[in-house]
């Protein structure tokens, strides 16, 4: 129950994500790209034709070649580093949640709980920044949700008499109206991961987060059930984050040629 998200805010996120379906991990169809001017597309084609081969231009190739929608692409060291940062930030976020759950079930030290919450917020912010999503509005929406939750958490800390985030939010679930948006963004990230890779742990987390946080917000969960869900969230989140490292780098990048072309014609 440390700075959790909540179900009232889940509706707009679910609407946006479900409308897109797998848009987060599938390249956009050609019609949007076709709206670019002929001059822009010809310029991009000329640039691609005159570019040096990956072997000549990229001596730091890590994976590839891969056939993309608009040509062949490679994973270079910069790409690999960005994916590594994304995965490590998920690990940090998961460990923060696990540590916070352990503390909440034992000593319940408010300072230690707040340290875990702040660590989670920071790590998850990096995850939201570095995740690869084709649809820029969807990516930006997750950023706005995270930013709103982080700002709300800061407001809770500043406004409450004890200046404790987790303890005050646990005792006064209505404070989730300020800080809970960050966990709505977390639900969106799990949805994206499940839509792209169909992994059971992402599906489980997509369900657990709104049930736990929404149930706490609405006062409908028994204490034992809430504790059990918190433990399940911690365990599955750590497993999810660790299992990301079994995937090739390209899995978390998508089709690099789509990102490149969309950037060049300024459609993102």
Written description of the protein model:
There is one protein chain. The chain is 69% helix and 5% strand. The protein has 268 residues and is mainly alpha-helical. The protein has a two-stranded antiparallel ribbon with strand order 1-2. β1 and β2 form a beta hairpin. The longest helix is centred in the middle third of the chain and has 29 residues.
Short description:
By secondary structure, the protein is mainly alpha-helical. It has helices at residues 10-20, 30-34, 38-50, 54-57, 77-105, 110-130, 136-159, 165-171, 176-179, 181-197, 200-218, 223-243, 256-264; strands at residues 61-68, 71-76.
Features:
5% strand; disordered N terminus; mainly alpha; 268 residues; two-stranded antiparallel sheet; 2 strands; 13 helices
Largest sheet: 2 strands, antiparallel
SS-derived structural category: mainly alpha
Bin the strand percentage. Answer: 5-15%
Total number of helices? 13
Radius of gyration: 21 Å
Give helix % range. 55-70%
**What's the arrangement of strands in the largest beta sheet?**
1-2
N/C terminus separation: 36 Å
The quaternary state of the protein chains shown equals single chain
Query: What is the overall pLDDT average?
Result: 83
Low-pLDDT sequence parts: 1-21, 31-52
**Number of DSSP strands?**
2
Shape: elongated
SSE string, helices as H and strands as E: HHHHEEHHHHHHHHH
């Amino acid at each position: 129950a440390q700075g959790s998200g909540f179900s009232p805010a889940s509706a707009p996120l679910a609407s946006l994500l479900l409308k897109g379906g797998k848009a987060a991990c599938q390249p956009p169809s050609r019609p949007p790209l076709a709206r670019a001017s002929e001059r822009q597309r010809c310029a991009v084609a000329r640039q691609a034709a005159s570019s040096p081969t990956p072997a000549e231009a990229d001596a730091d190739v890590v994976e590839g070649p891969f056939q993309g929608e608009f040509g062949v692409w490679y994973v270079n060291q910069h790409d690999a580093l960005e994916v590594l940062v994304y995965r490590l930030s998920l690990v940090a976020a998961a460990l923060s949640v696990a540590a916070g759950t352990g503390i909440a079930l034992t000593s319940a030290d408010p300072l230690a709980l707040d340290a875990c919450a702040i660590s989670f917020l920071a790590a998850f912010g990096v995850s939201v920044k570095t995740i690869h999503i084709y649809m820029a509005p969807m990516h930006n929406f997750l950023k706005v949700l995270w930013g709103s939750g982080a700002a709300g958490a800061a407001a809770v800390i500043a406004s409450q008499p004890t200046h404790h985030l987790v303890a005050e939010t646990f005792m006064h679930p209505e404070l989730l109206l300020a800080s809970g948006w960050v966990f709505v963004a977390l639900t969106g990230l799990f949805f994206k991961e499940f839509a792209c890779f169909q992994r059971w742990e992402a599906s489980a987390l997509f369900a657990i987060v709104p049930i736990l946080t929404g149930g706490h917000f609405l006062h409908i969960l028994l204490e034992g059930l809430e504790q059990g869900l918190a433990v399940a969230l911690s365990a599955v989140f750590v497993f999810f984050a660790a299992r990301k490292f079994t995937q090739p780098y390209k899995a978390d990048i998508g089709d690099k040629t789509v990102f490149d072309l969309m950037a060049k014609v300024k459609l993102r």
